[in-house]
Amino acid sequence: MAMQTGTSDDVQLRTNSQLIRSNRDSLDRKDSIMTDPGREGQELEGGSGIGRAIGVFTSGGDSQGMNSSVRAVVRMGSYLGCKVFYIKEGYQGMVDGGDNIVEATWASSSGIMQRGGTVIGSARCKEFREREGRLRAAENLVIKNITNLVVIGGDGSLTGANLFRQEWAGLLDELLEKGRISQQQRKECSHLNIVGLVGSIDNDFCGTDMTIGADTALHRIVEAVDCIATTASSHQRCFVMEVMGRHCGYLALVGALATEADWVFIPEWPPEDGWEDTLCRKLANERSMGQRLNIILVAEGAVDRKGNPITADMVKKVVTDKLKYDTRVTVLGHVQRGGKPTAFDRILGSRMGAEAVLALMDATPNTPACVCSLDGNQTVRVPLMECVERTQAVQKAMSENNFEEAVRLRGK
Question: pLDDT tens-digit profile of 183-197?
């Protein structure tokens, strides 16, 4: 989406209200991802999970609040009497085994809630994409008797976990046939339960109102814009700021609204042809009314209506060439993914981690893999693959330049 976040009588607003109403009215109840309520707030009996083992790992890009989730999984699991294991370095640690899979304790999970990133590490793993890699991962889990996994990551990590679950029985049969596990181990680890938590600063996952880390990243953006605004005003400059978000414009859009930015470019709703002139008229109008600075936010995945990238440098060139303003580009980059998590992300990660353990305790061999997510202020459980498919459908719609459908699918 590319839109103005200020107002002006002589500048035509980017948003087409009729189209927005049409998109809103086209949403039907059948388009919603149905949720099951979580067990947050219910009385729990300590020790009810004795004899069960849980593995927790983080995968893909890190995000602030992941450590809160890890801590909550360890502590809720320990309270219920489960053995909980850290699986270090994501899927890579699962494939490599050995010292990468270690038993967690109450003490080992202390003092990590306030730390950014993930203390148990995260890594991309090519081996896990192949069946042989997943076979090794299954063997390493069986050795520790781990049949319950909490996966903290994005849609790619969750998709991999679901495939692993679907193949589990076949992987164990192959391990048994090759003599790498015993018949008793095959029987005791007959099925694998999976629960996902969405750790991503992008807030791009369909099925949850907020992903773990998005609030902190948004705060980083707001802080950066506020700092830059003071120097921009001093020198009457225009700043074009690139923010993260991949294929989702949440950070750019909400960041623009929260900082009184003059314009924002987001992937889901590209600007109409001729946006260059409209943008410059808007900025010039602001200056004519006495404004000393201009702020433009550009999501890293921003494109035009033909799918061509719109970069911060391109926007700078437009402003410099047409208006001759002193214009600078700032790319926030990984600052958005670093640092201490906000109170919101600490609590969100904790709530989701605790609910994930409860979902594993409730799971049966026939229970589909689920994601613990936030609906309003309620913890809920949603079908993992339905959420992944909806998320991927948004990306597919944008790749086909079907931006109206992308916006529709972003809704619930």
Answer: 999 999 999 999 999
Residue with tokens 């609910």: 355
What angle do the packed helices 250-259 and 214-235 form, to 10 degrees? 50
* 225 and 404 Cβ atoms separated by less than 8 Å: no
Sequence-distant (6+) residues with CB within 8 A of 7 are 13
Dist. CA 186–CA 171, nearest whole Å: 10
Write down the catalytic residue from 202, 204, 215, 345: 202
What is the 8-class DSSP label of residue 343? Answer: H
Active site (annotated) includes residue 326: no
The H-or-E segment that residue 240 falls in is: strand 238-243
Measure CA 95 to chain center: 24
E-strand ranges in 285-325 read 294-299
Coil, strand or helix at 85: strand
How far is the CA of 159 from the CAs of 2, 87, 100, 133, 156, in angstroms? 31, 18, 22, 16, 5
What is the number of H-type helices and E-type strands within the chain? Answer: 13, 13
Tokens 């900082």 belong to 259
Name the pLDDT band for 410 (thresholds 50, 70, 90). confident
C-beta separation of 386 from 370 below 8 A: no
Query: How would residue 33 be classed by pLDDT, with cut points 50, 70 and 90?
Result: confident
As a whole number of angstroms, the distance between CA 126 and CA 105 comes to 30
Please state, in angstroms and rounded to a whole number, the distance separating the CA atoms of residues 113 and 69.
8
Q: Among residues 332, 300, 335, which one has the least CA distance to residue 314?
A: 300
Q: Which of 199, 201, 243 is nearest to 222 (CA)?
A: 243
